[in-house]
C-alpha cells in the first residue's frame, strides 16, 4: 500500500511539474505536443497545433482586425510595403488608388490566386497584411525574391519588382524591404507548416510538391537566410500575440526565433524543447576559448556580480566623426557608438539636464552626417550594449545609462545596466522611423519635443516627433580616439558577437547583463 501511494504521489508530482513548464511570450503549454520532436515530425506536430482550434475570421473582418494587429505607435496603419504612408485604420482603405499613398488594402503575402481563394487561407490573418494598394497591385502575384528592381520600385526604393537574382529562380519577383524580409520569411514558414497537406497543389513556384519540406529549395534557402539576417522583432511578437487573441493560433517561428533550423536547417537532428528552447547560436563557442576560471568563485574580471560601475570613456570618439544612418535592425551592433537625432529639426541628443536630454544642433544629410561630438554643447554618442529587447545606451561622458524611472515625460540616468529602467527595445521601422521603447514602461518611448526642444520619454502622441539613429563609422580616418593602453581588451558574447571594443580589462564586464562572455580567449560568468 505504501508503494502504491508513493507511486501515485510521484505520478501526480510528475504531472504537476509538466504543467509548470511554460513556452515563451505567454504561450504556456501551447506547443507541448511538439516537445522532443525533430525535423519533419516536428513540422507535422506544429501543423496540428496551429491548426487545431484556429478560427476563420472571414475576409470582411480583417479591416477591424488590423486595428488590433497592425498599428504603428502613432495610430496609423503599419505598412510593410511602403515607408511613406500614414493611413487612418478606419477610413484609409476606402476609395480607389492611382498612385502610392492613396489607400491601403488587404495583401495576401501568399497570393490568393495560388490557392484559388480557398478558405481558411484567404482570411488567415498571419499572412494577410494591410499594405499600400498601389504597391500591392504592382507586386501582383509574383513570388518573393531578390531583384535589382528594373521593372518597378516604390518610393525610396523600399519595395522592388524585377528579374530574380536569387540562385535557383529566374522569373519575375517582388522584393520587400530588408527590415521586413525576416517577418515575411517567418510568415512563409508558418504557411508551409500550417497548410502542409495543401501546399503541393498551390501555384507560384515558391511552395514545394510535398508536405516536407513544403517549400521549393530555392525559396527555402532564401527564407532561412532572410530570417537569420532579420531576427524576430518586438513588432512581430506583438502582432503574434494580437493575432492569437483573434484567430486563436500562433506562429511558432516568431515564438521560437531560429526554429526553422530545427525544422529544415542545421539542427534537424536536435530535439525541440518547447519550455527550454535553445535558439541557434546560443551554444556556439568562439574559437579556442579556455574554460571558465572557477565561475563559482571567479577572479577579476570574472566577478561583476553587482555591476554598479559603468565603463569609463577611454574609447569614446571625440572631434569630427562620420556617422551613417541606421537603416534596419541589422545596423544595431553592440559596442557601436550611436546618435539619437530628429532629422526634421536637425537636432541631436545632448547632455542630461533636470530629467531630460538637451537638444543640440547638428548638420544632417539623408544618409550620412559629420559632426563634432562629446564636447560641450555637442551631440552625445551612446554606446550600444545588451541585445534586442534589452539594449542599453551608455553615456561614456556622464558614465550613466539612459533610463526611464516612471516619472512623467522624463529621460533619466541609471548606473546599473541590469535595471529594467535602463533597458530598451529598439525597432527600426525604416530609415525615418526608429522606436526606442523602455523595457520597464513599454508605453513610453524616446521622442523629440519640438515645442520645448528636448529628448525625453513620452507616450505615443502626434505632438511629439519620432527619432532616427546614426552610427559612427569607426573606420574613417577622421575619427579620433585617445591612445589605448596595452591592457585594453575586446569583449565577445558566447556566440562570437562583439559586445565591447577596446575597454580596460579590469572594467571589461562591468555593467553587462548576466551571461557568459569571452575576454582574451577565456570565458567569464557575469552573475
TrEMBL record:
Residues 277-317 are annotated as: Disordered. Residues 1-21 form the signal peptide. Pfam families: Endonuclease_1. InterPro entries: Endonuclease-I (IPR007346), His-Me_finger_sf (IPR044925). One of its GO terms (molecular function) is endonuclease activity. Keywords: Endonuclease, Hydrolase, Nuclease, Signal. The keyword Iron-sulfur does not apply. Belongs to the EndA/NucM nuclease family. This is Endonuclease I. It comes from Hoylesella shahii DSM 15611 = JCM 12083.
Amino acid at each position: 500500500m505504501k508503494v502504491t501511494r508513493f507511486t501515485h504521489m510521484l505520478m501526480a508530482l510528475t504531472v504537476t511539474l509538466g504543467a509548470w513548464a511554460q513556452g515563451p511570450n505567454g504561450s504556456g503549454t501551447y506547443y507541448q505536443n511538439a516537445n522532443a520532436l525533430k525535423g519533419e515530425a516536428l513540422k507535422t506536430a506544429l501543423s496540428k497545433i496551429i491548426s487545431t482550434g484556429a478560427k476563420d475570421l472571414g475576409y470582411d473582418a480583417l479591416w477591424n482586425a488590423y486595428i488590433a494587429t497592425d498599428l504603428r505607435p502613432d495610430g496609423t496603419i503599419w505598412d510593410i510595403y511602403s515607408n511613406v504612408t500614414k493611413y487612418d485604420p478606419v477610413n484609409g482603405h476606402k476609395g480607389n488608388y492611382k498612385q502610392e499613398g492613396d489607400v491601403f488594402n488587404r495583401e495576401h503575402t501568399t497570393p490568393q490566386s495560388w490557392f484559388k481563394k480557398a478558405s481558411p487561407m484567404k482570411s488567415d490573418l498571419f499572412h494577410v497584411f494591410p499594405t499600400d494598394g498601389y504597391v500591392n497591385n504592382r507586386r501582383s502575384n509574383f513570388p518573393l525574391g531578390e531583384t535589382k528592381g528594373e521593372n518597378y520600385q516604390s518610393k525610396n526604393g523600399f519595395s522592388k519588382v524585377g528579374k530574380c537574382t536569387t540562385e535557383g529562380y529566374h522569373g519575375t519577383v517582388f522584393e520587400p524591404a530588408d527590415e521586413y524580409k525576416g517577418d515575411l520569411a517567418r510568415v512563409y514558414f508558418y504557411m508551409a507548416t500550417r497548410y502542409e497537406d495543401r501546399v503541393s497543389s498551390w501555384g507560384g513556384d515558391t511552395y514545394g510538391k510535398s508536405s516536407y519540406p513544403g517549400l521549393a529549395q530555392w525559396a527555402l534557402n532564401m527564407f532561412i537566410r532572410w530570417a537569420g539576417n532579420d531576427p524576430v522583432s518586438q513588432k512581430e511578437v506583438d502582432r503574434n500575440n494580437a493575432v492569437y487573441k483573434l484567430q486563436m493560433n500562433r506562429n511558432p517561428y516568431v515564438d521560437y526565433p531560429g526554429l526553422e533550423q530545427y525544422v529544415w536547417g542545421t539542427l534537424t537532428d536536435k530535439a525541440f524543447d518547447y519550455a527550454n528552447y535553445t535558439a541557434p547560436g546560443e551554444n556556439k563557442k568562439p574559437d579556442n576559448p579556455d574554460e571558465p576560471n572557477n565561475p563559482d568563485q571567479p577572479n577579476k574580471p570574472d566577478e561583476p556580480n553587482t555591476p554598479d560601475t559603468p565603463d569609463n570613456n577611454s574609447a569614446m570618439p571625440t572631434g569630427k566623426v562620420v556617422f551613417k544612418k541606421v537603416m534596419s535592425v541589422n545596423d544595431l551592433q553592440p559596442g557601436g557608438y550611436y546618435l539619437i537625432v530628429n532629422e526634421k529639426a536637425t537636432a541631436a541628443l545632448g547632455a542630461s539636464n533636470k530629467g531630460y536630454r538637451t537638444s543640440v544642433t547638428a548638420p544632417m544629410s539623408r544618409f550620412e552626417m559629420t559632426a563634432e561630438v562629446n564636447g560641450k554643447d555637442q551631440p552625445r554618442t551612446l554606446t550600444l550594449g545588451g541585445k534586442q529587447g534589452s539594449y542599453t545606451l551608455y553615456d561614456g561622458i556622464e558614465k550613466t545609462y539612459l533610463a526611464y524611472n516612471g516619472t512623467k515625460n522624463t529621460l533619466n540616468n541609471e548606473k546599473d545596466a541590469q535595471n529594467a529602467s535602463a533597458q530598451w527595445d529598439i525597432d527600426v521601422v525604416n530609415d525615418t522611423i526608429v522606436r526606442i521603447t523602455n523595457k520597464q514602461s513599454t508605453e513610453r518611448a524616446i521622442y523629440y519635443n519640438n515645442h520645448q526642444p528636448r529628448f525625453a520619454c513620452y507616450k505615443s502622441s502626434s505632438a511629439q516627433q519620432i527619432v532616427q539613429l546614426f552610427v559612427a563609422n569607426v573606420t574613417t580616418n577622421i575619427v579620433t580616439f585617445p591612445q589605448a593602453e596595452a591592457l585594453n581588451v575586446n569583449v565577445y558574447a558566447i556566440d562570437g558577437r562583439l559586445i565591447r571594443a577596446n575597454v580596460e580589462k579590469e572594467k571589461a564586464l562591468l555593467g553587462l547583463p548576466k551571461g557568459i562572455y569571452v575576454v582574451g580567449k577565456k570565458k567569464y560568468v557575469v552573475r
